[in-house]
């Protein structure tokens, strides 16, 4: 019987769902799957993006884990595509590859002052508070007034993590260094800026409502932002999500404020123009232009410039994918160019795209960094459907043996981790948590993660 040896690069939700869907799909060939990830632990942004105080979403790991625990997918962690293994290596050992490498860096924001000290990308801060091994252990939380630019869920995650009292995060899985950093934060005011009005935000009602439940944090909204035009009123009456958002914000307008030690301000119709220098190369203020509805659902600048003193700015304007060596990349969209998951390469004489046989993509690197974890499932279905139908165009590897890949990694001296290794790390983190009455305490340094996974911790 024909056998598909498949490599999947990226063990986030998209990669794991793709493996699961393929193994369950109706097909007339056998399948053997190896899942590679550059990190020693699987689950991608569910582990290293979703905020630690969202245990329900973090709980999706349980479902992903059940897929891996079934035992029909091999995991090779701590293996980076492009450095430890290349496309030529994969062609020698597999019939096809699916790239599910997601997006981990910040999209750029082009305003003066982004380079100042105290101006940060949200993705870096998220990676810090979620204990990503490749980011610094310490974070400079020295600002009393902070700006967060953006009106999506990541902006709200960042604002909430900055405004929330560290003690209230203690029951979560935040690493010890993150708790210590947040506990010492002198923050009093977090200002969130969105260019559009309250009825055009990208965040979801659940994330918004949660802000109003933070202990000792006043929610500040400004009456001037609620002078709705016809388009905004139509959005409130015609869209359930907008209706709820409007209702929550209006409830906050009625709330008595002034007693809390911290404040979270939502500024709508506020387009950041510049991050101002305090005279020493550090962030000193954020300068923004007041906007107004343009009557067609957008906004226009009013020319009225305002300024709020802040000592730090977090730019939460979206994530962006990273190119992979040897794989086509769309620099504008930050994705691997593809047609429903079949990777496309510009190789026709007329410059048009043609399919790069054997190479597929799914998840955020396929369609861009928008959408929830659940959306990666439908992505994977589409990609896997093409992979199955393309049987005649798969690669013909030198060796289909499962051992040959292990031999290659060992020959290269790569400290790869496996599913058993992940289980060791998982048990270790939960034991650390138990000692402190918490569900889990994450291990952050990469070498420690690898040592624990490989059972070498006692020797260290
Ligand atoms: C801050 C934040 C909060 C979020 N909160 C929520 C939420 O509350 N609810 C929700 O539903 N969704 C949330 N999301 C969205 C969700 O995380 C994504 O939809 C989902 O993780 C995308 O899955 P993916 O597998 O495509 O990418 P990822 O989850 O990014 O996984 C990609 C994997 O590929 C690996 N990789 C990358 N490059 C290489 C390489 N060269 N070699 C080997 N491996 C590589 C990475 O290490 C990673 O494990 C959030 C996202 C962010 C950024």
Structural overview:
The structure is a single chain. Helix 1 (13-24) packs across helix 13 (375-389), helix 10 crosses helix 11 and helix 15 crosses helix 16 (446-453). A hairpin with a 5-residue loop joins strand 11 and strand 12. With 460 residues, the chain is α/β, with parallel strands linked by helices. It is built from 16 helices and 18 strands. The strands form four sheets. The protein has a seven-stranded mixed β-sheet with strand order 3-2-1-4-18-17-16, sandwiched between helices. The chain has a six-stranded parallel β-sheet with strand order 6-14-7-8-10-9. Strands 11-12-13 form a three-stranded antiparallel β-sheet, with no helix packed on it. The protein has two domains: 3-104 and 322-416, NAD(P)-binding Rossmann-like Domain (Rossmann fold), CATH 3.40.50.720; 105-319, FAD/NAD(P)-binding domain, CATH 3.50.50. The protein has helices at 13-24, 44-48, 55-58, 60-69, 87-93, 122-129, 153-163, 176-183, 205-211, 230-238, 240-254, 364-367, 375-389, 402-411, 419-435, 446-453, and strands at 3-9, 30-36, 73-76, 96-99, 105-106, 119-121, 145-149, 189-193, 217-221, 262-267, 270-277, 283-293, 299-309, 312-315, 319-320, 338-339, 342-346, 353-361. The protein is globular. The chain binds flavin-adenine dinucleotide. Flavin-adenine dinucleotide binds at residues 9-15, 36-39, 44-46, 49-50, 54, 57, 80-82, 100-102, 126, 154, 157, 319, 324, 363-364, 371-373, 376.
């Amino acid at each position: 019987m024909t056998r598909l040896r498949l490599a999947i690069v990226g063990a986030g939700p998209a990669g794991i769902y793709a493996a699961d869907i393929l193994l369950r799909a109706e097909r007339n060939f056998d399948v053997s799957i190896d899942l590679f990830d550059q990190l020693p632990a699987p689950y991608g942004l569910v582990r290293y993006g979703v905020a630690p105080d969202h245990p329900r979403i973090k709980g999706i790991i349980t479902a992903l884990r059940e897929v891996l625990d079934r035992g029909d997918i091999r995991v090779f962690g701590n293996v980076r595509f492009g450095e430890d293994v290349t496309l030529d290596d994969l062609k020698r050992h597999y019939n096809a590859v699916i790239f599910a490498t997601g997006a981990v860096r910040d999209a750029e924001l082009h305003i003066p002052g982004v380079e100042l000290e105290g101006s940060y990308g949200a993705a870096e801060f998220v990676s810090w508070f979620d204990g990503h091994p490749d980011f610094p252990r310490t974070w400079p939380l020295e600002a009393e007034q902070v700006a967060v630019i953006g009106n999506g869920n990541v902006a709200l995650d960042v604002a909430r993590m900055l405004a929330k009292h560290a003690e209230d995060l203690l029951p979560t899985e935040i690493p010890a260094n993150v708790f210590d950093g947040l506990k010492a934060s002198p923050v009093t005011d977090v200002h969130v800026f969105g260019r559009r009005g309250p009825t055009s935000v990208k965040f979801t009602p659940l994330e918004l409502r949660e802000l109003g439940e933070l202990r000792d944090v006043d929610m500040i909204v400004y009456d001037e932002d609620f002078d709705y035009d016809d388009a905004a009123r139509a959005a409130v009456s015609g869209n359930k999500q907008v209706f709820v958002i409007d209702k929550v914000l209006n409830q906050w307008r009625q709330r008595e404020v002034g007693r809390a030690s911290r404040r979270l301000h939502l500024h709508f119709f506020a387009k950041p123009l510049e991050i101002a220098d305090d005279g020493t190369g550090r962030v000193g203020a954020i300068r923004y232009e007041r906007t107004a509805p343009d009557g067609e659902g957008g906004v226009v600048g009013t020319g009225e410039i305002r300024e709020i003193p802040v000592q730090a700015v977090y730019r939460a304007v979206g994530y962006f994918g990273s190119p992979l060596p040897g794989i086509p990349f769309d620099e504008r969209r930050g994705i691997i160019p593809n047609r429903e998951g079949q990777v496309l390469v510009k190789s026709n004489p007329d410059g048009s795209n043609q399919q790069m046989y054997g190479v597929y993509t799914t998840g955020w690197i396929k369609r861009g960094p928008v959408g929830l974890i659940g959306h990666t499932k439908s992505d994977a279905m589409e990609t896997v459907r093409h992979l199955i139908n393309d049987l005649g165009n798969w690669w013909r590897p030198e060796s289909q043996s499962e051992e040959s890949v292990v031999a290659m990694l060992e020959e290269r001296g790569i400290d790869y981790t496996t599913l058993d290794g992940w289980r060791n790390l998982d048990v270790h983190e939960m034991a650390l948590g138990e000692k402190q009455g918490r569900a889990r305490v994450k291990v952050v340094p990469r070498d420690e993660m690898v040592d624990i996974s490989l059972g070498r911790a006692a020797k260290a």
